[in-house]
Amino acid sequence: MVVLSAARWVRSRLSDRFWRVQEVLKYARHFRGRKNRCYKLAVKSVRRAFVRSTKARREKKRFLRALWITRIEAASLEHGLKYPAFISNLVKSQVELNRKVLADLAIYEPKTFKSLAALAQRRRQEGFLAALGDGKEPEGIFSRIVHHHY
Prior knowledge:
By secondary structure, the chain is an all-alpha fold. It has seven helices and no strands.
């Protein structure tokens, strides 16, 4: 008989039930009370913890999106635009930045965000063709302008 490692040899000598119990108890080690020692209690607690962690991953996405929207709204209000008007006018001006990037710009690059707000403000006041004007963006914006020939 060839033994590859001591751990595999030991594992092959014990029953599968032992290793299943150890797997559950491994995840329950940090629980308080008997839940980290008694298999019957640990199974329920570990299953509940896994279900909650799965739900929490979905809720984290919702929470972060709400946080980004709050930050964008606060920054756009500083420049005289409400959030829905700001976002819709950026979309109409063909600025394809998502909310995460816009929130980061609002915090770490206020001048860039100010120029985006100026672009949205101009788009709001004048309409799409007038917002493009003579082909020059507000200071601080570097983008490709798509010219539509009608």
